[in-house]
Amino acid sequence: MTYCLAVKVNEGLVLLSDTRTNAGLDDISRFRKMFIWEQPGERSVVLLTAGNLGVTQGVITRIEAAVDAASRGEEVESILTCSTLYRAAELVGEAMNAMQARDRARIEASGAAADATIILAGQRNGGEMRLFLIYTAGNFIEATEDTSFFQIGEHKYGKPILDRVINPETPLSDALKAAMISMDSTLRSNLSVGMPLDLAVVHAEQYGVVQSRRFESDDPVFRQISEAWSRELRAAFHALPEVPLR
Amino acid sequence: MTYCLAVKVNEGLVLLSDTRTNAGLDDISRFRKMFIWEQPGERSVVLLTAGNLGVTQGVITRIEAAVDAASRGEEVESILTCSTLYRAAELVGEAMNAMQARDRARIEASGAAADATIILAGQRNGGEMRLFLIYTAGNFIEATEDTSFFQIGEHKYGKPILDRVINPETPLSDALKAAMISMDSTLRSNLSVGMPLDLAVVHAEQYGVVQSRRFESDDPVFRQISEAWSRELRAAFHALPEVPLR
Fold first, then answer.
1. Is B155 helix (H, G, I), strand (E, B) or coil?
2. Could you tell me if residue B246 is inside a domain?
3. Interface contact flag, B165 A236, Cβ < 8 Å
4. How far apart are CA A177 and CA A196, in angstroms?
5. Distance, CA of B159 to CA of A73 (rounded, Å)
6. Reported ipTM
7. What is the pLDDT of residues B69-114, one digit of tens each?
8. Which domain range does residue B164 map to?
9. What is the percent of chain B with per-residue pLDDT over 70, rounded to a whole number?
10. From the list B159, B229, B244, which residue is nearest A157 (CB)?
């Protein structure tokens, strides 16, 4: 399984993904699910992937090939050179369509699932920050003021804290903390989501710059947040009033 | 959908269930999912049901018919008269088997799901408190010291708080609060789980007595816990240390 989430607040974007994949419980591997493209001063695009790994790797390979070709001066439309981030989401959707057309029937004939979902987030110079969720069918939706985050994969354990904390006015530093404890809750409750984690932060209107880092399983910063949250949550719990049983 | 949970701690049992069922998003109804049988001084048995409503109602009808027949003096084995609660779980499993044998093929031919799960909890005079989870196949598992709670239905949103708080030594009053905020998180994140709620509490070695009550959507006690938890959770969140982005 997988858990990736992307939060969009006025101050910027926070993206966080785990790295665990499994084909059955006894076949567990580690794969990066976050992919970052930057063009300093111009544009940043971050993708998060969930679902059939063969499909999502095929999508990323196609996108990367186009970015490479465009950077060599070839006349290819890529997510770094296309006119808008909406068009970049279309390009990801088209790559998804190509992979599904090539592999879906045979994957399903073998009894496996070919579904995949991809989050695209970023900003280009001259445009707003954008956050898209691209489905198996290649269609997509965009985050709005009413829905400030998207989650893919094992999303339920980590949703309550996001529901409570995230809105467009949430400071970026709080969005980051909320993302980390959403991931922490998921890690604790579901074995199919695992460390290390990949984090990316895009500050609004700092075009083409993505702050990114990996949290290994012994990372002191992640452990500090995780332990502080455990402690504070227990304190919050013990501060609740008694419930009378009438 | 449904969310029911049952917590077993040394001091007793806490059982909590919602009442929302739906056949599609546009066909939502209210059905009780908690069923209580008591024999003062002797035995209490509480069932919580999830899954195909026709199946679970059929199971409850069969169990109730046996209890009625036994109470009229007929020689019928019922969950109130059988030798142990383990045997009561077997009787529920047998009723499940009967319903699945009767209806499953036709339900599935119509494209619907026939799966159902049932939690059984209680205590008889002379025995320990027991907590069982009975599956569609009629087989079942029992809660142990390592696993002090069972959830059925939409269980993921409300699992993290139980994972953090519940163990056999947890006071019954805390188990009750944890169950309520587990339900509260689920209600907030998933429309298919809805008020009113049914609560039952079984104190260890008070045989045959179940404290029970319903929380309507405007219940002041539930609202107080829900609002206090929101407030404390926000305070807990704001007490977290800052996360450096190296």
1. coil
2. no
3. no
4. 17
5. 52
6. 0.84
7. 999 999 999 999 999 999 999 999 999 999 999 999 999 999 999 9
8. 3-238
9. 99
10. B159
Task: Check CB contact under 8 Å for A177 and B243.
Answer: yes
CA distance A53 to chain B (A): 24
Which residues in A lie closer than 8 A to residue B191 (C-beta atoms)? none
* Domain assignment of residue A20, yes or no: yes
Inter-chain contacts counted by CB atoms under 8 A, chains A and B: 117
Residues of A with CB under 8 A from a CB of B: 156-157, 159-161, 163-165, 173-174, 176-178, 180-181, 185, 188-190, 199, 201, 211, 213, 221, 224-225, 228-230, 232-237, 239-246
The residue assigned the tokens 């880092």 is A213
**Tokens 């199919």 belong to which residue?**
A192
CA distance B11 to B205: 9
Q: For residue B192, which residues of chain A lie inside 8 Å, CB to CB?
A: none
B29 lies in some domain: yes
Alpha-carbon distance A68 to nearest alpha carbon in chain B (angstroms): 28
Handedness of CA B15, A188, A226, B246 (dihedral sign): negative
B156 CB neighbours in chain A (<8 A) are 156-157, 189-190
pLDDT in tens, B120-142: 999 999 999 999 999 999 999 99
* Rounded CA separation A63/A92 (Å): 7
> pLDDT tens across A213-225, in order?
999 999 999 999 9
How much is the pTM? 0.88
User: Which of these, B180, B194, B133, B184, lies nearest to B157 by C-alpha position?
Assistant: B184
Residues 6+ apart with CB under 8 A from B50: B2, B3, B4, B33, B56, B116, B117, B118, B152, B153
> What is each CA distance from B243 to A26, A211, B206, in whole angstroms?
34, 13, 50
Query: Domain of A66: which CATH number?
Result: 3.60.20.10
Question: Which of B149, B151, B156 best probes binding to A when mutated, by most A CB atoms within 10 angstroms?
Answer: B156
Question: Given strand A34-39, what is the order of strands in its sheet?
Answer: A34-39, A43-51, A116-124, A130-134, A140-142
| Residues in Cβ contact with A222 at an 8 Å cutoff, skipping those fewer than 6 apart | A180, A184, A195, A197, A215
Number of domains in chain B: 1
Is B245 inside any structural domain? no
Contact B243 A221 (CB under 8 A): yes
* Residue in B176, B188, B232 nearest the CB of A236: B232
Find all residues with CB under 8 Å of B241, minimum gap 6, and list them: A224, A225, A228
Residues in chain A predicted with pLDDT less than 70, given as ranges, are: 25, 246
For tokens 């997509």, what's the residue? A140
Task: Say yes or no for a CB contact (<8 Å) between B233 and A233.
Answer: yes
